[in-house]
Amino acid sequence: MNSYIVMQGETYKEEKLIGILRAPMKDKSGATPHSWERMKLLQKGDRTFHYVKGDLVAVGTIQEDAREAAVNTAKAEWVAPCEYLELDEPLEIAYHIKELAEHLPIKYAAFQPDGNGNSGYLYPCNEELALKFLALLAASKWQQIEQLEFSYDAVRTEKYNSWTAWMMDTEFLARRKLSNFEQLFTERQTQRWNGSCAICGKNNKALLKAVYSKPWKDSVDTERIDGANGVLLCANHAALYESGQIAFTGAGTLRISPTLNEQAVNYELKKNMRIAAEEENIEYFRWHRRTQFKGE
Predict the structure, then answer these.
(1) What DSSP letter does each residue of 201-236 carry, written as one string?
(2) Would you state the pLDDT for residue 116?
(3) Phi, psi dihedrals of residue 86, rounded to the nearest 5°
(4) What is the mean pLDDT of residues 197-211?
(5) Which residues contact 7 (CB under 8 A, 6 or more apart)?
(6) Does residue 79 contact residue 20 with C-beta atoms inside 8 Å?
(7) How far apart, in Å, are the Cα atoms of 81 and each of 20, 26, 41?
(8) For 112-125, how does the pLDDT look when each residue is reduced to its tens digit (9 = 90+)?
(9) What is the mean pLDDT of residues 156-171?
(10) Phi and psi of 221, rounded to 5°?
(11) What is the mean pLDDT of the chain?
(12) What pLDDT, on a 0 to 100 scale, did the predictor assign at position 151?
C-alpha cells in the first residue's frame, strides 16, 4: 500500500460524485507534469488524502488500478476509481504545518512552508506523513481514543465505508510497511558493515543503528531498502550523522561540521578519517552532504 495527497480544488465535488481520480496525460504544451504522471502508479488498495482550499476534507481508498482512457485523443487521461470518506471536520493544514513539516520531502512536497498547497494534482505521501495525518485526524474526531482499542480484527474486516475501519487498516498497513522495510534495511547494513560501527568499530548490537543517507521521507521504496543508502553507526555517530553534524564524501572521507569541531575529539572523530565506502554509496553520500550537512 502507498498513500497519496490529492490536490483537487474545484474538481473535488465532481470527482467525489463520480467516485474517481483523474488527470490528463498531456498539458497544452504536450508535456506531462510529474503530479499528473504519478496517476499511473495508483493501485487498488492505495490510500488518498484529499486537499481542498487549505484543508484535508476527505480520505479515500483506490478501488482499481489506474487505467488509461480516451487514449490517442485530445482528452487522453489516467483514471482511477476511488471510494471517498468525507471528514466531519476538515483538517486545516496551515494550522498544523509545523508538525507536518519534518515529514515533508524536499522534492515533490504537497505543501509549502507556510502550509499553502503547491500546484499540481497527485503528490506522494510517505508512511511517516500518513501516520501523522492519521494522528491529527484521530485527535480531531475522537475525544476518547480508546474507541480504537476494541476488537481490531472485527473492525478491520469491514468494508471501508467505515471511518474507524479505514483509520485502523491504514495505520496497520503503514506501520507494517515501515517495520518490514526498516528490518530489511538494518539487516543489509549489518551485513555490509560486518556488524560494527563504520567509524569507530564498536560492535555492541544494542548501540548500533542503521541510518539513512537519504531519509525515508525523500526516498522511493527501492531506495528505502538499498544497502548503499546509509551506514551502520554506533548511537553517538548515528545521531551526529542524522543531525547533519558529520557527513562523508563519495570516497568515504569524514567531514565534520564547524558546529562540532571543538567537540570532535570527544566522539573519537578526526579530520579526514575514512570509512570503507563503495561506488554505490556516492550518490547517497552526496545527497546527504548537499541537503543535511551543516556546512564545511
Answers:
(1) ----GGGEEEEESS-GGG--HHHHT-TTSEEEEEHH
(2) 96
(3) -80, 140
(4) 96
(5) 35, 51, 110, 117, 118, 119, 120, 121, 122, 123
(6) yes
(7) 4, 20, 13
(8) 999 999 999 999 99
(9) 73
(10) -55, -40
(11) 91
(12) 45
Question: Which residue type, as a one-letter code, is found at position 170?
Answer: T
Residue type, 278: E
The kind and range of the H/E element at 138 are helix 127-141
pLDDT at 153 over 70: no
Residue 189: C-alpha distances to residues 35, 94, 169 (Å):
33, 38, 30
pLDDT at 256 over 50: yes
Distance CA 169, CA 159 (A): 11
| Residue positions counted in the chain | 296
Q: Cell numbers 518490514 label which residue?
A: 180
Per-residue cell: 92? 486545516
What contacts 24+ positions apart, CB below 8 Å, involve 272-279? 273/199, 275/198, 275/199, 275/231, 275/248, 276/193, 276/198, 276/252, 277/248, 277/250, 277/251, 277/252, 278/228
C-alpha cell at 32: 506531462
- State the pLDDT at residue 164: 81
pLDDT digits (tens, 9 = 90+) for 218-246: 999 999 999 999 999 999 999 999 999 99
Q: Cell for 160? A: 471501508
- Residue 72 has a pLDDT of 86
Kindly give, in sequence order, each residue whose CB lies less than 8 Å from that of residue 247, ignoring residues fewer than 6 positions away.
241, 254, 255, 257, 285, 288, 289, 292, 293
Q: Which amino acid is at 271?
A: K
Question: How many whole angstroms separate alpha carbon 238 and alpha carbon 255?
Answer: 14
Which band of pLDDT confidence, cut at 50, 70 and 90, is reported for residue 138? Answer: confident
3-state secondary structure 32-89: CCHHHHHHHHCCCCCEEEEEECCEEEEEEEECCCCEEECCCCCCCEEEEEEEEEEEEE
Q: Are 88 and 76 in contact (CB under 8 A)?
A: no
